[in-house]
Amino acid sequence: MAKATAKNTASNGLLTQATQHCKAYREYMHKQYGATAQTAYNSYLFTREDLMRILYDASGEKDGIRIYIGFEDAGKGPLVRLYAVPCRQQGAQYHDAIEPIDARQGTGAQRTSAVASTDTVRSGRPCPSQCGGANMLNS
Q1: pLDDT at position 54, please?
Q2: In the chain, which stretches have pLDDT less than 70?
Q3: Which residues lie below 8 Å from residue 138, measured CB to CB, with a gap of 6+?
Q4: Under 8 Å CB-to-CB from 122, ≥6 apart: which residues?
């Protein structure tokens, strides 16, 4: 029972931290760019289908997902963009299962069947537009 309580306390601490960070981001975007809840993205939805497509594609099962953070200057301030890519575990490390830079630059590296196709990368669905109900992280 003590183990479950410690886990719940840690989860609550992370939720509290996430709430603070999300609020700070919204306040920063408003102060710097005049962004409102209707103009600034505050979350991204990745559906089960998106996640399954990332983890189980034609190149085989993957061991994890890494989220990359991008940026788009949309004229009224920056929009954060998230990109989810599949990863394979090698020992204690997780490596992106996307084509290595040297393979794209033609330096002789070969793409292997363990590398996911670019169809596997997902950008998620931004909120506003794909939003859930009001909660601690988005209000």
Answers
A1: 86
A2: 1-11, 76, 101-120
A3: 22, 42, 43, 127, 131, 132
A4: 46, 50, 53, 54, 83, 84
Q: Which long-range contacts (CB under 8 A, 24 or more apart) does 11-15 make?
A: 15/136
Q: For residues 81 and 83, give the distance between their C-alpha atoms in angstroms, rounded to a whole number.
A: 7
pTM beyond 0.85, yes or no: no
Beta-strand ranges (E) seen in 30-134 are: 43-45, 56-57, 60-61, 64-73, 78-90, 93-96, 125-127
Measured distance CA(139)–CA(129) in Å, rounded: 15
- Spatial CA neighbour of 123 closest among 34, 37, 38, 41: 41
